[in-house]
Amino acid sequence: MMEEKQNNNTFKPNTSKRVFTVGLFVLSILTAFVLGLYRMPPSATYDNTVFNEVFYRLHQDHYTQPSESQLWEGAIQGMIDSLDDPFTIYRDAEAYARYQESQQENFVGIGVTVLNADEAVVVTSTFPGSPAEEAGLMNGDIITHVDGVDYTNKSFDETIGVIAGEVGTTLELGYYRPGLDETIFVTLTRREIDRPSVVGRWLDDEVVLIEIRSFNENTADLFIDMLEDFEAEGLQGLLIDVRNNGGGFLTTLVDILDVFLVRDDTPLFTREIWQSRSKFEAAEYGDGENTKPYPIAVIVNAFSASASEVFAAAMHEKGGYDVFGVTTYGKGTHQTGRPLQSVSDHFLTITTGIWLTSNGNWIDRASETPGFEPSIIVEEGEAFQIPLLYVKADEVYEHDMVDEKIALMQTILNLIGANVRNDGYFDNDTETALRAFQVDQQLSNTGVLNQVTANALSQWLLAYREDPVNDDQLQAALQYIKDSIND
Questions:
Q1: Burial classification of residue 417, based on how many CB atoms lie within 10 Å of its CB (0-12 exposed, 13-18 middle, 19 or more buried)
Q2: Which pTM value belongs to this model?
Q3: Which side of the chain, N or C, has fewer Cβ within a 10 Å radius?
């Protein structure tokens, strides 16, 4: 999500004082309209007699005896639901507190980043060493159940709300993995997760990789400080990785773009904004003064969304930097969030418009350009596309059986170095390769696939992914930077 952040713990557009003032005026009108439906006389433009009657009858006669606040909450949510927009969200005090926590560099939870996909909770990444990673969750998994309750038809915020909890408490999580017929259930223990939004390391003695995992409130300061340290140590080439980055604050995005792009007649991006039922454009030019003297490239993937797509597009279209990877997620809307004036600690996030790239392109799933296409397409290697292998405690797969989990096992064995079929039939060669793996991992040499062996195969796969040598997208970008340094 790309949001506009205000001072004093609110949000404001990064355009002009006029826009901010008008935005508050619109919110005041909306609040008065909502509160006026039952408490105030009908307005001149909307006859709310029907609403008043329905509200009254439900409050007085429904057998559950709902409270007025319950009906008001439902009415508000009904208005939002009618928009068919998963990014317009009304949060009460509890949900708002969770949202604020989610913007911090650490939090209590299971260790996943998620994306709101039409109210579905889609995992975009897991944190190393987190309960989620240990349980085998991965990119693309869709969380469907929490503690035995089906959340498939509930809102994104409702699902996230029940996943949150206190340190040391447990929950049963159910999730759907594309390609599998069954829901996978695992038990996790919540703990404090260290979630740095910026992580950097040397790839060799010349090139640095900096991952921007989200555009949080403090991300720009962390990024700039880290980059300056690497520059002081002799950085000669830079890779910026925004894969699995779901977005963040507009002001943070601009502050980081200013590090690389010089202010001129070409905007970093442009926003079309609706306020007071009128549309206007606001171009963001930034305040950058200098470019960098070393080669730079950006890496994206299918889970790079919103602010990370704006970042990649601006770096390429305005800065001329190459972008590696595959087409991004395609979220071309932006949101403005403000606390409600009528009730404390309640928060309304509204999709107020769309954003356009430096060249004026709208990148959104609903547009002709459903995602930002990198200048250099590099597909992810097979190890990064396949799921982790999950086998229940009471499941055993052995010789002469056929199953999709056997096919996944065969694929992982081939990545390890075997040369077996991968169609899911457990033949003699598969058994021999599996026994070799079990011996290498000091497991019982049974020649069958059970939960222990499946977990060991998944751990091997995670370690394989962590090694940058196996990351085809990273290696392609690194070679490009090395070649540029030597030119």
A1: exposed
A2: 0.77
A3: C
